[in-house]
Amino acid sequence: MIKKTIICFLIILIGYIVFRDILKPDIVVSQDQWQDNQIKAQGYLYSDTLYADNIIVGSSLSTHIVADSLRDTFNLAMGGESPFQGLEAIRRKGVYPKRVFIEINTLYNPISRFNDILYNPLLFHLRKYSSTFRDGKQPLPLVENIFEDKLAYRLIPSRFTLFDGKDVNTGNISDMALGDMLTGLQKRYGRSIPKEDQNAVMARLEYYVGILQENHVDIVFIELPLDKTLYDTPFSNDIRNSLERTFPPKQYKYIYTDWSGYETTDGLHMGKENALKYTLFLRDEIDRLSNLR
Amino acid sequence: MLFNSFIFIVLLLVTFGLYYIPKLKHTQVLILIIASLVFYAYDKPAFVLLLLFSAGINIITSYYVVYGRAKRKKTVALSGVILNLCVLAFFKYSPLISATFLDPSDSFGRFLLHIPLPIGISFFTFEGISLLIDVWKEKYVENKVMVSKSLAKHAQHTLFFISFFPHLVAGPILKAHDFFPQIKQKYIKDIQWEAAFKALIIGYFLKMVVADNLKDFTSWIQFPQFDHLSSLTLFSLLLGYTFQIFADFAGYSLIAIGLAKLFGYNFNDNFNFPYISTSYKEFWKRWHISLSSFLMEYLYFSLGGSKKGKARTYINLIITMTLGGLWHGAAWGYALWGFFHGVALAGERFVESKITSSSNRFVLILRGLLVFMTFAALLLLFKIPDIDHIFSFFSSMKNNISKFNNVRLISYVIIYSSPVVLYHIMYLCKDKAIWKGVKKIEYVFYAIMLFFILTNSGTPGSFIYFQF
Q1: Which residues of B participate in catalysis according to the annotation?
Q2: Structure pTM?
Q3: Which of B224, B447, B450 sits opposite A177 (nearest CB)?
Q4: In chain B, which stretches have pLDDT less than 50?
């Protein structure tokens, strides 16, 4: 029985590899934000052609930056993560851009298992040689895609929203819930960051900045606007102070903005309009920094 | 260390390789103990000391109960049980005690609040208690079989019993009388390869493909994210969570069973298709069997079981289930979960004493749905820590009928839940003629599961029961 199972498994696997790698190589289906991140990171890591002069690393805050409106920019920010995932991807790829924009708001986000999974020794090499093992190529999301298109709307009553499950700022959350979220954020931002955590995160960032500098990469720290009540708080001030202590503004570039000029939908994330406004501001700042050279 | 991590596969292969080397045959138990301690120490090395301490308590007390002075045996056995419970209470329930009864600004209260929770403590503590009660009562196996005259050998066997890595951090909870008689030299030719293979494939499939994918969707069951979802979407997510928790826990148990078989040890089944149950009593004979049988044998019967009249039986059921709930976690929500299950069991018993139960198929289906939906609804006490938010969830489910359904979420929940549904349906069909046909091509199903494990695993998450 074990032998029959293994032979049958190999037949199914080879058939699927042929189907995915050769017959339908361009179909990529993501089922959630985590997979979106993995697809983005894997697409970046395994591509021989993807290169941009500028790379943005950060969290879902930075995913709203409209990279198409910036010159030669690739947005490697990943929802739910921190800049460190993007920085590690740049390091692993070994092909360095001219400039890296590091979002500072989420430097102190907890470390997830994202990199453990992305760089799993077995899967990392399998993915390199066969795109079938990459995220976005799984069989069941493909089945879901077909099911959703062909059948789901007949079986499940009423239309669906364009809410895509990746982003809570759809505007559909009730005011009461939004109020609760902001209160929670204000509580969190009302607390200082412990010194040991500051030291650990700064040490980690120094490691990556060191590697980027060795490879002649220009580093720009960017602070995205959040709800204005979170601006002058112990948590936000600790982020800025710990960063400026480790990377003095005289030696490193910072792009700060006036938070009161922006609206967020949930205390953290900008909506489309404000994201575009910020992108244009960023573009102007990048031009200014380029002229300073 | 997760069972689906690269480092675990390396540990397993090395351990398996060493275990069956003929020259090392007399050190098999020692090899497994070392592997188990490495497994446990991987995340938090300091907790190995606690594991050794817990084993030490049980080694000394159980040895004394068998070979010590007759007059003191009962006291020693009782002391051992109390010590085990004290260790559990200190590490697991200190934060709850502090939060409930003490002043948070008080230094002692703050100290208790920050006591770390060692993984698996609920499991290995209960196993220690099982050993002590088994040797004290000598109900199943003669003591001299379970407890070697050589203290060193007994120490080795007890440490092995408690720390054996397949079941160490999330069960099944082994009973001493089931495990100790199995401790002997094992041979590679005696491995039940097919049974181990099947258990591992189904286990990894349930965990990596079903549970790990479903968790990314059921994460929407948190406040305030669920606030804007439609009633149908919320209902689907609730069902999804019910299937997820089964897949996670049953998957882990099957992996543990399969791994143990590779080393020549047999664990009892921990889940027996619980979602086909048509009564609460039946449900608890099918769900987390090792815990419910432990609670029945060592707690419910000790309280008097059903032998002290109806009212006392209902009280005993409620107490047993409430404490069983609290075993799951140091929060009153868990106790409430257990309490409600106790009330359901007691209520069912009361109704059955008044009304003859019907074997009509339609009635059985309705009963089955009632049992399933009660379990599903009460699972929110596991998922949402704040009880106010649980009420918000039900309120959203009631009020959001006119909101648009999230078809994508619902579709994914259907797809990833369907294997659990199929798994139960296949069990129901096992006596039908169709089953013979299915059995002939079962290797195809295992091949498909293996294919999905390799190509469609979700993002690895800790086993839900690690937190218990």
Answers
A1: 328
A2: 0.88
A3: B224
A4: none
